[in-house]
Amino acid sequence: MSVLVDHFDVFAGGFWLTFQLCILAATGALLVGTLVAVMRISPVPPLRWIGTAYVTVFRNSPLTIVMFFAAFGLPALGSNADFLRIPGLTSIFSRLGIDLPYFRFAVIALALYTAAFVCEAIRSGINAVPPGQAEAARAIGLTFGQNLRYVVLPQAWKSAVVPLGSVIIAMIKNSALAGFFGVIGDLSNSAQNLTSALGEPIIPVFIGVSIGFLVMTVPLGILLDRIERRRAVAAR
Amino acid sequence: MTERTEAVEVAGGTTTGEPLIRLDGVNKWFGPLHVLQDVNLSVARGEVVVVIGPSGSGKSTLCRAINRLEPINSGTITFDDRPLPAEGKALARLRSEVGMVFQSFNLFAHKTILENVTLGPVKVRKEKPAAARDRAMKLLERVGIANQAEKYPAQLSGGQQQRAAIARALAMQPKAMLFDEPTSALDPEMVGEVLDVMTSLARDGMTMVVVTHEMGFARHAANRVIFMADGQLVEDAAPDEFFANPRSERAKDFLSKILTH
Ligand SMILES: Nc1ncnc2c1ncn2[C@@H]1O[C@H](COP(=O)(O)OP(=O)(O)OP(=O)(O)O)[C@@H](O)[C@H]1O
Ligand SMILES: [Mg+2]
């Protein structure tokens, strides 16, 4: 187990990069997922179709394939995902700004894939809002967008937050794939390096990597349990 | 089918010429169910029209058609001389001019009573929040629940919630108000407080379409009573006339049922 001590900096660095990947992908997934959910319930049929098609594709494709398309398809299309080199953001998440695009590709793949599940969690939250709420909002003259923003979504979030948390936990675990698609120095890529390049023993290395993921997922899970329990008490 | 009294000469109502709400040959189907059958109705400014009829006769649908919460299949509905616009900004604007009060209150559950009342004025009418707040407090005072302003809907009694819902509708300064069985979800002891607010609105000259089974309200506050059955307007008469002398069998039958208990 000495590898955990000897290469603590590698694990810590891998954790930090995976953490950044997860923060960015989760943010993107929440934004895109909310947008797609709104499209799916919009009164405009073509928007609904696009939303439904999006969810159908991304919910039913293996993440590996989505990662593959991002890592090899985007460059083939001539994109280095430079739109993610957002000034300001790159100073916090320095990997976003570098020339090597694989971190950006991983963010995109993970965010787009997770967005389909975020969409469905939000949609179930929207469906849990009594229809009278939206109706009353329409009756006082709120437009579709205002209705969502001020009446429906704030209430939908409440019942969506626990399923959303589960989606994000799944996303954190899924982020382990990034190391196999060109991202250097995240938790899974660090593990590969330590075992194949440096010949460290496999089991302790993967225990270290597991701890890295558990540090992110377990607190989130506990938080969700808390929220759920508080809800249950409030509902009584 | 429709027997309408030409001029409206009743119950101390002040009504003027051009109708504010007008339905011409309105038909509405839910699948095979013909819920509104060739409905013609006009409601003058300042007029209070009570709609009664057996369950399932289409009263709610009629009420909801007027602000297009329920789209119709044929015919025309005009409000304030304009045909109802299709879904979109113009319809939202029209809806803001027609207050609606629901059986189940439908107050925004995540907002305080005060926020419920100011949301429309601030977001739809772009009023200054402080001004909207002042006006909202006056309205809450008017309906007698100013001291509940900071509470959430679930913390109020049914009667208080319904009065808050009326205040929310009034905050938009509507040209007309639609009420769909505003007191049927209330415990009996709270019905009076809501009817009092509605009666005072009627006195102040608000144009109102009220679906209700409160015959006392119909007698005292309405200019006209409309009796609906199976999607048709079967009778349209002054309250005194209607209650003393219903013309159709359906109406006689209905009245005998609701007035015997
Ligand atoms: N969204 C809907 N889809 C299908 N059928 C509907 C819908 N809304 C109402 N109906 C049907 O249309 C008919 C008229 O309904 P409506 O609610 O207008 O009646 P109502 O006179 O208001 O009855 P109540 O006194 O019970 O409120 C009923 O038979 C009802 O079942
Ligand atoms: Mg009804």
From TrEMBL, chain B:
Q: What is its main location?
A: membrane
Carries keyword Transcription?
Answer: no
The record, for Pfam families, names: ABC_tran (PF00005)
InterPro entries on file: AAA+_ATPase, ABC_ATPase_HisP-typ, ABC_transporter-like_ATP-bd, ABC_transporter-like_CS, MetN_ABC_transporter-like, P-loop_NTPase
Looking up SMART domains in the UniProt record yields:
AAA
**Localization:** Cell membrane
Q: Where are the transmembrane segments?
A: none
Keyword field = Amino-acid transport, ATP-binding, Cell membrane, Membrane, Nucleotide-binding, Transport
| One MF annotation (Gene Ontology) recorded for this entry | ATP binding
Report the superkingdom from the record.
Bacteria
What are the ABC transporter domain coordinates in residue numbering? 21-255
> Does this entry carry the keyword rRNA-binding?
no
Protein's membrane topology: Peripheral membrane protein
PANTHER family for this protein? AMINO ACID IMPORT ATP-BINDING PROTEIN, GLUTAMATE_ASPARTATE IMPORT ATP-BINDING PROTEIN GLTL
The family note in this entry says:
Belongs to the ABC transporter superfamily.
Provide the protein name: Arginine ABC transporter ATP-binding protein
